[in-house]
Amino acid sequence: MTESPAEAGEQVATPPRRRKRRTNARALHLMLVPGILVVLVYEYGPILGTVMAFQDYLPAFGFLNSEWVGLENFRFVLSLPDTWEVVWNTVSIASMKIVAGLIAPLATALLINEVGKKYFRRGVQTIIYLPHFLSWVILGGVLIEILSPTFGIVNQFLGLFGVEPIYFLGDNSWFPATLVGSDTWKEFGFTTVVYLAAIVTIDPTLYEVASVDGAGKLRQAWHITLPGMMPVIVLMATLSLGNVLNAGFEQVLVLYSPQVYDSGDIIDTFVYRMGLIDFQYSAAAAVGLFKSMVALVLISTSYYLAYRFAKYRIF
Amino acid sequence: MGQDSERSGRIGRRGFLKGVSVAAGIGLAPWLAAACGNGPKAAPTKAGAGLDAAFFERPDGAIKDLSLDQVPAAQQKTSYEQWVARAEGAYDPPIKLTTVAQTSPVTKYPKGDTLAKNVWTRAYESRYGISVETKWSVDQSQWEQRTNLMIGSGDLPDFFLASQSQLDQLIRADLIADLTATYKDHATDQVRATILEAGPTALESAVYGGKLMAIPFVEQNETAPHWFIRKDLLDKAGLGVPKTMRELLDACAAFTSNGTYGLAVGPSPNQDLGYLQAFFNGYHAYRGLWIEKDGKLAYSSVQPEMRAALEQLQRMYKAKQIHPEFGTRTEEQVFEDWANGKVGLIQGRGSGPNGTDILKTNNPKAEVVALPVLSMDGEPAKAQVDQPNVRGYWVVRKGAEHPEALLKMLDFWVSTFYLTPSDEVQAAFISDGEEPNLWTLNKIALYRAYKNTDVHNTLTKLLDSKSADVASYRPEVRFWYDYLKPAFTGGKIDGYQYRSLVGYYGPNSGRAVQDLYRKQDLYMPDGFFGVPTATMSRRQASLDKIEAETFTKVIQGSPIAEFDTFVKEWKSVGGDQVTREVNEWREQQRARR
Questions:
Q1: Tens digits of residue pLDDT in B528-556
Q2: Chain A closest CA to B493's CA: distance in Å?
């Protein structure tokens, strides 16, 4: 993307009309430079750091002098007894989150779309996407308080219906559900906005025609709104598939405890304890690389599927 | 006044930010650093002639000076100017030293001062001609990651505080200087006495192949676990102050009623069970230590004593003597319970638990006393401590011109922090009344093993005697004397004064217990204090995980057989291998002496 003075000089010789168009494009391309630089430095640069996955990396020796160990780090990680439990937890929690994170906002968007009063729609939209901006550290504290079996408001409410107190954060059978529920609650408002935007792009005449044909609200939603939104739904699903190994590091770290390691310990939290508390950089990098490879395969697959079934493609 | 340098009890932040910053660091720094590369890999230093026994001997006179709380009359009016006047052996022309620093979130700087330029740096400059430049500073929680990145980049300052594993790497990579001669020639008696007060292992742990490779940042020894119990609740239940673990358990049962719990159990910083060491120690069980067994080192958490302690905790949990949600509660919530009088018994580490001030303010009848760890049988119980008591290691970059400057600064630190002669010096360097943490601005430090306990002893004597001549004592003693005097003369005191009384300086305070531990040597030290062994560093996360999981579940009612399963699993997952390595380490350690 460098532009030498010599090239700029040559441009003078080109015919006026063509030159004008080219300069415009050039200005636009120049505007890309900072962005590309940022991506190169912060996204591509660190890729070089993954060499430590194949080394016994020690900071004092750096990359050039750390010992090369081949695939030893991967072998080590796979040999850990926790690995499969942790991978299973990650995949199951992440899948549930992906499904819930698709359905909840979609349903909400369809419902909000049917509300006539503008101020009400705006109000609901704002309120439901607010939690998105709170960090898990804050929400974690709140959740621990309200989900407590002895004094939490949720269990007191359930108690009114004769439900025995549920230890949401300390019971292995409830913990994943609590994670999925709270994550969906935090994020669904934000995703709803995307779906609402998709609904706006649907041609209103379609609805008029449908109502002339006698279709009720449900039929309209089923035959017009949903098909109209399909590309966006497929896109969101595709994008979220890349996250199948991301079950939410911050959230789990804030909410879990040793008694729910069985069902709640995920790859990221285990790596955090192993890699960043015990400073096992190489092993942590190996897991990170492994996660990236799986994500690459998943995204490629889902991209292909999106093309097959929804004719959606970026390139 | 805050001269209490003990680690704060509130560490409960879950610190994922820490993780995020490292994660970013792992990604970015290496390739920046890779370009620079680091020095050639040196063979580990060959065992040298070794350091003679005299090297590890405490200079006799100096330690007496250190524990002396009275100031010679000639020094009582020392002014700031006199204190920082040019010393013998000052550098001319002045030299420059670079370092990196930890920030303290609570410190507010006096007008115009910064972490880089403050009363301490000015003193080093005027007294010794040493100008200290701080290249960067970072919050304590990010310290190890940040220094790792720095080491990775190969851009070392003249001196800095390294962790044990960093020290090990730095030596192997041949990046730091041998300080043997520097220490022999330049360490003053008071510096040597301070380091050796922590026991010989502190200095020994910095000796590699017969060379002293770092100055250990020795820590207080006075932070061993013990109990704080509610005396008023004991009186109400008609019980005396417990003398044995059994009586302590009876007290717990008596304290328990609807909404009040006998024993406070909380999470430690990494969400594992904390506040139970004193309990385990009563059963001669120790959490996470390497103890002597049949002539070998063995891991304490897998011993039968631990099984018995857990069984008892399980019974107490069933009897509702422990908070039903202890596994998911935060450390702050535990302190809240204490403050609200919902707990009768809580573990402390020398200072009084957070919330004692609120407890006393809200409930003037509340009375707290400190107890040492109590034994289950006739054999005296010992309190578990980390050994050696080292917070880190001061290392000097290889090729730095003036390693001895470090020892001049350390000498000034010991003189100023521990032997402050006058109020003016105290106000300038340590605490001026408005900012109690001026002393945290210094660039290099050592902590005396028993300073606070010594202050406690002096104060107890002073407060007991009817006609104390307080004027000749050091500022710290005088401050506490004035602050706590009302408590001994029948005056009214507020919650904060009460907390100091309970934690530090009263007759039944935590410090009194620490003094008892010291006098009767009731410590159970960690037998392993080397760099984590190969298997240990690889498997620690897995081993800790099953341990925490099992302990929590057993307390909550899982069959005690799970403990036996845990022991088997622990051994097969790497525990046996770690045990072998730890014992190999000990053989080498013995050979090194």
A1: 988 888 888 888 888 988 999 999 999 99
A2: 34
